[in-house]
Task: structure prediction
Amino acid sequence: PYVNTKEILEKANKEYYAVAALNINNLEFLQAILEAGIEKKSPLIIETSEGAIKYAGTGDPLRGAKFFVDMVKGFADTLDIPVSLHLDHGKDFKYIVSAIKAGYSSVMIDASDKPFEENVKITKEIVKIAHSVGVSVEAELGKLAGIEDNVSSAESVLVNPDEAKKFVEETQVDFLAPAIGTSHGAFKFKGEAKLDYDRLKQVKELTGIPLVLHGASSVVEEIVEIAEKYGADFGGSKGVPSEILKETVQLGINKVNTDTDLRMAFVAGLREYLHNNPKEFDPRNYMKKGKEYVKKVVADRLELLGSAGKA
Ligand SMILES: O=C(COP(=O)(O)O)N(O)CCCCO
Ligand code: NA
Ligand SMILES: [Zn+2]
Result:
C-alpha cells in the first residue's frame, strides 16, 4: 500500500534498521526498485528531486508532481509492501507546495545552507503547511561536501548535536538529516572514507527521531567494472563502504538516500545491452539489462540496511 513516510520510519527507528530512499526520474527505475522490494519483502521510500519533477512535468511543478504521485501510488496500491513518495531536497516553495498538493507522503525542506535561525524559520513554515494535511517533513542540519545538485558547497560543515536538539524541538520536523561527512555524487571523500560517528551518536541521543543519511551511495565495484568494460569512464569514483553504512544504521540512521548507485547500475546495463545487441531498437528490450542491474543493487542494499523482511 501507499503509506506515509513517517509510518515507515517510526517502525525502522523502533527496530533499529534503515529503509532505502531511492531516487527516480522515470518508470523504468521505479519498476526495478519495486521488483527488488517485492522480492525482499521490504518497505520502500521512493523519492524525487525538484529536478525530476521539472523533468517529468516539462517545467510545470504541479504536473510533474502529479505524474509521480499517480505512477507511484498506482503501483503501491496493488502491492503488499509499504511504499511512500518523498520530495528530496525541496528548496523552491513552488515545488514543495506542489508536492504536498499532489499527494506526496513527505517533503524535505533543505534550508541547510542558511544560518541556523533562518533554517528554523523556513522549516517551521513548511512543517505548519505539511502537517496541516498529514504530510511529514525532513530537514537538514550542517552541509554536505561535494556537489549538492546545482550548488557546490566547497567543504562540508558537520552537524552540531546541541543545535540539532534545539532545531528538532523548535521545528517539530519528523526526521532529520545530520551532515556527518558524506557528499552527493560518485566522488566522495578526498582521502580515506570516514564519517563522524560520535556526532551521529550524540544527535540520536539528543533527538531520538528517525535520522537520514544523504550521499549514501557506495559506488558498487562490479557495476563500475561492467560500465567501464563498455566504454564508461568512472575513474576516481568512490562511495561509502558497506561496513561504514552498516555502522551508521547501528548508530541510528533510518533513511538512506541512494541515487548515484542506481544511475551507475542503469547505465552499465544500458551500455552492455546496446554493445551486445546492435540490431535492437525496442526500448522495452534495450532497457532490460539496466533495470536488472538497478534491481540487483537495490536488493543488496535492502539486505544490508536490514529492511528486508520488514514489510
Ligand atoms: O543524498 C542523496 C543520494 O546521494 P548519492 O546517491 O549521490 O550518494 N540524495 O539526496 C539523492 C540526490 C542527490 C544527487 O545524487
Ligand atoms: Na531527502
Ligand atoms: Zn541528498
